[in-house]
């Protein structure tokens, strides 16, 4: 079993959201990445955005968390994603160049999120909301459960 502790950001521009995927994969995710031991989650998110795509960002309010599990070569993988609002100067008309050859960044319309295979799956309902909830979000895709609460 492998556990992943991640910080992810919601970066929006005029009804669009920034997504990431491994090149050749069908699954997408919000920008961000692994939190290092004893690293504050917001700092990890700012660091990951800079490392992966030279995105200068101000990490804002904590939005909530989403857990997920999957199997990779027969090994159970489990993750908890801490989700934050992120402010940048980016617009959806700007292409984002990845600093990592295995990743690609792209903008999609929030209303079309179901077509982009976003994981954890519980984040799809959150992304479609015009305004993010003030109360902390919790979504789960563990053991077949797909629950969302705000």
From TrEMBL:
Keywords, comma-separated and alphabetical: Hydrolase
Molecular-function GO term, any one: hydrolase activity
Domain of life of the source: Bacteria
Cited Pfam families: NUDIX
Residue ranges of every copy of the Nudix hydrolase domain listed in the record: 1-132
The protein's required cofactors: Mg(2+)
Keyword Hydrolase: yes
Protein name, UniProt field: Nudix hydrolase domain-containing protein
UniProt source species: Photobacterium ganghwense
